[in-house]
C-alpha cells in the first residue's frame, strides 16, 4: 500500500498519466513546470528514461530553479528557451517546445488557470507561450468551475521591487467591471467579484522579508473573489506599470489532468 496521503497520491497519478500520454520517444523538447506536483512528473520521466522510452536527445526547458534541479536530478538535459529553434518555421506558430507539463493552483471549467503559488509564473508563462501544447496536472482540490472559488490565496502578481507599494495601491483600486474590452462599464459583466481587491506582499517564512523571485522581483497576492472573466482580469492587471507578469493563464492550457479523491483520474480538454 502506498505511504502517500490522498492529496499526494492524486498529484502523482495525474502527473504519471499526463507524462505517459504526452512524453514519448518522438518528443524532442519538453517544458518542465514548477511545484510539488511536477516532482512526480520528474519521477515518471526518470522511470521512462531508464526504460529507454524517451527521445535519446530529449531537451528539457526549466521554468524555475527548482525545475532545473528536477531535470538535472533525473539525468536529463536542460536547455534555455532562447537557445531553441522554431519547431514549425513559416507556419505562423513561434513554438519551440513540443509540450509543457506544469502544475496549477486552480483550473476552471474552460481550462483557464491560476498559477504562481510557487512564484514561478513569469517563466512558466514564457515557457507555456513557446509550447505547442500546455498540459496542466493537479490534485482534486484545484478542479473548479470558476477561478477564485477554491484558491483563496489571491492571484499571484510578479512586480518590480522599485514600486511595489504603488502597484499594490493601483491593484486595490481596480473595479470589477471590465474596462479593457471596449465595453462601457455600465453594460459590462463584472470581471471579478470584490469591489476592492486586497493585495498582500508575499513574505518569506518567519517574516524574513519579501519573497524574491528567481528573477529578482516581488510578488503581490491579489484577492478579488471569483474571477468571471479571466482574460479581462489578466489584461487589466498587466496594464499596471511595474507589473511583470500575472498568474492568470487565460486559454493557454490544452488539457488538465486531475487525480480524484477516489483514486481515478480525470482529463479535461
Ligand atoms: C508555481 C506554480 C505551481 O505549478 C503551482 O503553484 C502548483 O503547485 P503545486 O503543484 O505545488 O500545488 O504555478 O509558480
Automatic annotation (TrEMBL):
Q: Which CDD domains does the protein's record reference?
A: RPI_A
Q: InterPro entries, from UniProt?
A: NagB/RpiA_transferase-like, Ribose5P_isomerase_type_A
Q: In which pathway does it act?
A: Carbohydrate degradation; pentose phosphate pathway; D-ribose 5-phosphate from D-ribulose 5-phosphate (non-oxidative stage): step 1/1
- Put simply, this protein is called Ribose-5-phosphate isomerase
The similarity annotation says: Belongs to the ribose 5-phosphate isomerase family.
Q: Which UniProt keywords apply?
A: Isomerase
Gene symbol here is RKI1
Any transmembrane segments, and where?
none
Give the catalysed reaction(s), semicolon-separated. aldehydo-D-ribose 5-phosphate = D-ribulose 5-phosphate
Amino acid at each position: 500500500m502506498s505511504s502517500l496521503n490522498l492529496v499526494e497520491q492524486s498529484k502523482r497519478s495525474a502527473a504519471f498519466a499526463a507524462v505517459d500520454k504526452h512524453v514519448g520517444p518522438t518528443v524532442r523538447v519538453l517544458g518542465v513546470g514548477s511545484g510539488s506536483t511536477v516532482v512526480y512528473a520528474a519521477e515518471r520521466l526518470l522511470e521512462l528514461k531508464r526504460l529507454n522510452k524517451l527521445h535519446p536527445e530529449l531537451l528539457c526547458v526549466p521554468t524555475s530553479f527548482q525545475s532545473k534541479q528536477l531535470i538535472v536530478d533525473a539525468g536529463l538535459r536542460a536547455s534555455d528557451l532562447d537557445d531553441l529553434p522554431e519547431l514549425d518555421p513559416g507556419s505562423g506558430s513561434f513554438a519551440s517546445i513540443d509540450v509543457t507539463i506544469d502544475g496549477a493552483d486552480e483550473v476552471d471549467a474552460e481550462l483557464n488557470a491560476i498559477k504562481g503559488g510557487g512564484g514561478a509564473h513569469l517563466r512558466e508563462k514564457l515557457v507555456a507561450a513557446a509550447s505547442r501544447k500546455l498540459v496542466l496536472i493537479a490534485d482534486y482540490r484545484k478542479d473548479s468551475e470558476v477561478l477564485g472559488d477554491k484558491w483563496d490565496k489571491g492571484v499571484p502578481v510578479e512586480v518590480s521591487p522599485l514600486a511595489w507599494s504603488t502597484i499594490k495601491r493601483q491593484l486595490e483600486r481596480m473595479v470589477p467591471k471590465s474596462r479593457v474590452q471596449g465595453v462601457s462599464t455600465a453594460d459590462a459583466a463584472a470581471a471579478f467579484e470584490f469591489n476592492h481587491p486586497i493585495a498582500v506582499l508575499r513574505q518569506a517564512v518567519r517574516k524574513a522579508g519579501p519573497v524574491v523571485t528567481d528573477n529578482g522581483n516581488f510578488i503581490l497576492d491579489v484577492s478579488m473573489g471569483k474571477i468571471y472573466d479571466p482574460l479581462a482580469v489578466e489584461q487589466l492587471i498587466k496594464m499596471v506599470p511595474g507589473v511583470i507578469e500575472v498568474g492568470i493563464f487565460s486559454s493557454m492550457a490544452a488539457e488538465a489532468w486531475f487525480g480524484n479523491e477516489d483514486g481515478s483520474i480525470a482529463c479535461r480538454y
